[in-house]
Automatic annotation (TrEMBL):
Stated role: Reversible hydration of carbon dioxide.
Record-stated family: Belongs to the alpha-carbonic anhydrase family.
Domain Alpha-carbonic anhydrase per the UniProt entry, residue ranges: 43-309
Organism, scientific name: Polypedilum vanderplanki (Sleeping chironomid midge)
Cited PANTHER family: CARBONIC ANHYDRASE (PTHR18952)
Cofactor: Zn(2+)
Pfam annotation, one family: Carb_anhydrase
Catalytic activity from the UniProt record: hydrogencarbonate + H(+) = CO2 + H2O
Signal peptide annotation: 1-20
Protein name: Carbonic anhydrase
Keywords: Lyase, Metal-binding, Signal, Zinc
EC number from the UniProt entry: 4.2.1.1
GO terms for MF: carbonate dehydratase activity; zinc ion binding
């Protein structure tokens, strides 16, 4: 019943699967609608726990948000299954990008990359015989320097922020269809942590913050074609992902569909406070600062969490699998 009307806004995993009978809040405009009309009316959920639409009440208007395989989680490193695996294979990692559509969705800032060619941008999970996921977009969850704003935490430690690279399983053709399937999505989480401003010589800045001033207001969209603001995925996350955690979970925003293979990179990306300030100036759909757009951690409920570390000596990146990744 809750799927009778589908209106998904992806690129940042906020969605509205609710019907008007289920829930009285207005429907959420899709990212594409936002791009077209550049405006927001209302939103179906918030991150403010004093609000009736806050995280502890999401389950009221979307029952899946109260499910048993929800995300994010706290990862206790003393309680993970350890395995060996090749680095993550992302064939778009170094591919040139010619433009980026930046959107303030009201809940996050979303980046849609236009690559130099139209070939599928693949993340291959579990080696050559594994599942193929197609890269869709990326977005960010962040907090302030006191409490942090990553969604996942490691041994209770919350990082400053977490970038999400959203992918959908290639067998489902497009993101909205995949999101309804148990094996539909794969999201890579990349933590951000603060770098020392004293070491900022301008040589290692993060391009993804440079045009945030153009989308401070909810609903604003900006097309980045300036080389100062265009980045490849490699330029964004700086390193090949060789060490990561993985588990089965959900979207971290309503409707909280339990369709996500999570891949959480261990190594954070560093960001200077002066860059960070640009994120803090972004305004949420409710007129507040968007800072704090992270869902509280959820119960693990017996799920296995795996930790993978790179082992070298591959003749070719994916010509053998050392450990069978579930
Ligand atoms: Zn997210």
């Amino acid at each position: 019943m809750w799927r009778s009307k589908i209106n998904i806004s992806f690129g940042f995993l906020i969605t509205s699967f609710v019907t008007s009978q289920d829930f009285n809040y207005p429907k959420l405009p899709s990212a594409r609608q936002l791009s077209m009309n550049g405006s927001l009316n209302n939103m179906t959920y918030s991150y403010n726990n004093e609000d009736t639409r806050g995280p502890s009440n999401w389950r009221i208007f979307n029952a899946t948000c109260g499910g048993f395989s929800q995300s994010p989680i706290n990862i206790e490193t003393s309680n993970v299954w350890r395995g060996k695996a090749p680095p993550l294979f992302m064939d778009y990692f170094t591919k040139p990008v010619v433009a980026i559509t930046l959107t303030n969705t009201g809940h996050s800032v979303n980046y849609r990359l236009k690559f130099i060619d139209s070939a599928p941008n693949r993340l291959i999970w579990n080696g050559m015989n594994g599942k193929t996921y197609i890269f869709d977009s990326l977005h960010i969850h962040w907090g302030n320097s006191c409490v942090g704003g990553s969604e996942h935490t490691i041994n209770g430690h919350r990082y400053l922020a977490e970038i999400h690279l959203v992918h959908f399983n290639a067998k489902y053709k497009y993101l909205e269809a995949a999101a309804l399937q148990q094996d539909g999505l794969a999201v890579i989480g990349i933590f951000l942590e603060t770098a020392d401003e004293a070491n900022n010589d301008g040589s290692n800045n993060n391009k993804f913050v440079k045009f945030l001033n153009n989308v401070r207001q909810p609903g604003q969209t900006y097309l980045i074609t300036d080389t100062n603001g265009i980045f490849t995925v490699q330029e964004l996350i700086k390193y090949e992902i060789r060490e990561y955690y993985s588990y089965k979970g959900s979207l971290t925003t309503p409707p909280c569909s339990e369709s996500v293979r999570w891949i959480v990179a261990k190594r954070p990306v560093r960001i200077y406070p002066s860059e960070w300030n640009l994120l803090n100036q972004v305004i949420s759909f409710d007129g507040r600062s968007m800072t704090g757009n992270n869902r509280p951690v959820q119960q693990i409920n017996g799920r296995n969490v795996y930790e993978y570390n790179y082992v070298g000596n591959y003749r070719h990146k994916f010509d053998r699998i050392l450990w069978n990744i579930p």
